[in-house]
Amino acid sequence: MIKTRPAHRRDADEAPRCRHLTRDEFVTALNWSTQVGSHLGLDDSAVFWAADPEGWWGIELDGALVGFCGTIAHTSDFGSLAGPYVLPDLRGRGIGSATTPFFLQHLSSLLGEDHSITTDTSPGHRRFFEDVGFRVTQVGMRMSGKGERLPWGPGPCELRPLALIPFDEVEAYDAEHAGISRRDLIRRWIAPAGGLALAALVGGRIAGIGVIRPSREGYCTGPLVADTPEIAEQLLDSLCSHADGQVMALDVPESNSDALTLAASHGFRTGAVIVRMTRGPAPNTQWQQIYGFNALHPG
């Protein structure tokens, strides 16, 4: 049984404690985040845990779990911070402020000297991360729509299941556009149970990838990356057809006007705003070819 703390005022002499999460605790923690708006796939906990089981931390008060954070080292010079997340009834009491320096110090210790750390957050938490050295590198529009079986027609490329494409080619294409290598994460991301993962091929070369995976409310969409708007549209048409009648969530970079236009043309409407922030050199992300980005972490 996982012990969680009832809401009450934190005593002045109480200090939060950080420790590694067990697998069951990690699943519980992710479920907390979905209750306040995080849109995660049904199998995302298995994907994130397998990518780095040592990267997930619990925050305790008096031996009870009250929050969590992820410190994921994707490469020797790039990592991501997922959180810290604190139970809503205990927010505003300095728990996040007290634990964030530990999480950043730990993650930095896993990386090289000129490393980068990225995080996704809400506009309301922007100042919090600015105070510990982060700056805004992208704004994402969380858009939602409904899948629809669209008429088939010839497109600019051939679509094939991503699982049939040599993984090294898939990973290289993702790394080229994301600006960093996410090999362990992407390996598990491209085969979503009950979802669809496609590669767009032009002359035998990858010119786009598109993935949707089942969620509690329908489907999460992303990554959706393409060399041209026409290829992105062909991929999105296929993903929408797979999700026929179901809600689809799509996180679109605000700086890509073609992506915003494409989403709107398929009936997607803007909801929440996501702020991507970076501490250190920003990855060379090819935002003009990203039509839907998947989070590097839950948050």
Automatic annotation (TrEMBL):
Gene Ontology molecular function terms on file: acyltransferase activity, transferring groups other than amino-acyl groups
Domain N-acetyltransferase per the UniProt entry, residue ranges: 16-153
SUPFAM superfamilies noted in UniProt: Acyl-CoA N-acyltransferases (Nat) (SSF55729)
Pfam families: Acetyltransf_1, Acetyltransf_18
The protein's name in its UniProt record: Unannotated protein
